[in-house]
Amino acid sequence: MSYWPLLGIAVVVAGFALRLNPALVVVAAGLVTGLVAGYGPLGVLELIGEAFAKQRYLAIFLLTLPVIGLLERHGLKERAQAWIRRMRGATAGRLLVVYLGARQLTSMLGLTSLGGHPQTVRPLLAPMAEGAAEARLGDLPEASRERLRAMSAATDNVGLFFGEDVFIAFGAVLLMQGFLAESGIQLEPLHIALWALPTAICAFAIHATRLLRLDRRLAREAAALLAQASAKSDRKDAP
Amino acid sequence: MISLQWIYWLTGTYIAWVALLGWRDRGNPRRRASALFWGLLALMLLAADRLPPVVVGGVVVVLACLAGFGGLGRGRYDESSAVEKAAEAARLGNRLFWPALLIPAIAVLVAVPLANLEIAGVRVFGREHTTLVGLGLACLVATITACVLTRQSPASAIEQSRRLIDAIGWAALLPLLLATLGSVFAAAGVGDAVAALATQAIPVENRFVVVLAYGLGMLVFTMIMGNAFAAFPVMTAGIGLPLLVNVHGADPASMAAIGMLSGYCGTLLTPMAANFNLVPAALLELKDANGVIRQQVWTALPLFACNVLLMYLIIFR
Fold first, then answer.
1. Could you report the predicted ipTM of this complex, rounded to two decimals?
2. Which among A100, A168, A195 is the top mutation candidate for probing chain B, defined by the most B β-carbons within 10 Å of its own β-carbon?
3. Where are its TM segments located (chain B) (predicted)?
């Protein structure tokens, strides 16, 4: 048993700790791992090149950017905010809870491309969450605004991750089934997929609770900002 | 037949155009490095399957160096004022939503009901990666629709996407690099080494400790690799099958399912999962690149605890 290939993991961990650029760290780890496994300099490059050519499809998401960029220039975000302001009873937290549930359910049906960061979170979900919060609470401090935007992205991730595994034709389920079959354990994909349900329910409960608490926190922060502003103007009025 | 190759050509041509516009952008202090980065990525999309693998590997190293030493810059972009945006939003109204909603609608249409569509006995969409083919076509149709709606040219759509693509920068490349690293790790036998190490380090007769080790292994290895798919074969071959299934008689289906989801908790916690954590932080213009991860910590950790508990309660039934 050779432990030398573990050097690659050590490179990744060290790169993490030193806060080096992750792209550089990952390629360095690949080169080191290939070399200690005895591939030779050209062999390593060949190994990396072959794998990279197969993984290129991960860059296709960039194609969503022209339509989003163009629509944003023509007021997409502003429109999304105006739309959500008209809904009474909408708060940022409630909006995100509804999105979380919808994202989980549609992912369970295999409709994972209904959401996503470039096509849904940036142009629609995050502006709507901000719009809902401002319609109710007035101006928000910059830090709260940032937190709300980050939470919108986090909600999309949680909804996707803990929904898609329940869908039988999803890559992860097929990967598990294929891997277990190779190890001599024959299982139906549905059998594996159904066991993702308990975690999916826990994920909804935990994240939805946090989202509803976020509403209260935003209200506190907006009130503090207002108090600060009025204290300032009071001082100005004093002789 | 519309295959993934067409979508690669489409994406490659688009990125090449972005590289050319970036080269001409004198507002970007690092315009040459940026243009070279996107130009090489475009070349990879267009021709990586025709070039010798050694050359592709060399280009990957150059891309990583461009990202790592000095990095890419931000330029000057043709942006509209807040007043213009508000006026356009009022003029176009809810029609603005349609092109954005077309992307998921068409992608799902191609991936599910039309996946096996045949015209005169010939498949319309390639059998492999139909979802990606659908996504590519959806983006094309949505862009054209948005151009018609706003009376702009596709060239101005590409110009408008530059501020987004420059904001994402090198993070766009990280998922590809990590997937590549996964292949290298597999070829070099990293999984076997991890498994051997884990078996020596834990008291294998205690069920709960083994469950915890399997879950933690998935979590930590996913954080390192940025991807639970890379961690699953390593941890399941190393701990799951030999110890939980063979020694303690666990049910493999529920063990695999919940084990994978323990890995997903790790995905929420790592900057290595760039497409889920760093790219949105850039897209949402957060000051803190790890802002999204910070919001995910207190969902991921309690959920991981739930996963370990669920595994312990379910798999030994």
1. 0.85
2. A195
3. 6-23, 32-48, 54-75, 96-117, 129-149, 170-191, 211-244, 256-276, 296-316
